[in-house]
Design brief:
This protein has a single domain, classed as Orthogonal Bundle (434 Repressor (Amino-terminal Domain)), CATH 1.10.260. It is mainly α. The chain is built from four helices and two strands.
């Protein structure tokens, strides 16, 4: 079972899938976690936790939008899970 953080509960699978998508697009762009974190103005440690497949880390809309902008993708791409 995934480790819950920041009050994650019924959205555990969603938070994990968002993290997987962020990592997927980060690797496509050729960014390290540190590079993406800097571009999105978030801490590398937080990004590492978000991307960790065994952790469900809640993410704010502001951070989600910042990450999508840094990845140069529409924010909705991070919420599409059909291809996972």
């Amino acid at each position: 079972m995934a480790k819950l953080k920041d009050g994650a509960n019924r959205f555990t699978d969603t938070y994990i899938n968002i993290g997987i998508k962020i990592g997927y697009y980060r690797r496509i762009r050729g960014y390290t976690q540190a590079q993406l974190a800097e571009k999105a103005s978030i801490s590398p440690g937080y990004l590492s936790q978000v991307e960790a497949p065994g952790m469900a880390v809640a993410i704010s809309l502001e951070k989600l939008l910042s990450l999508a902008e840094a990845l140069e993708i529409p924010p909705a791409k991070l919420l599409e899970f059909e291809d996972i």
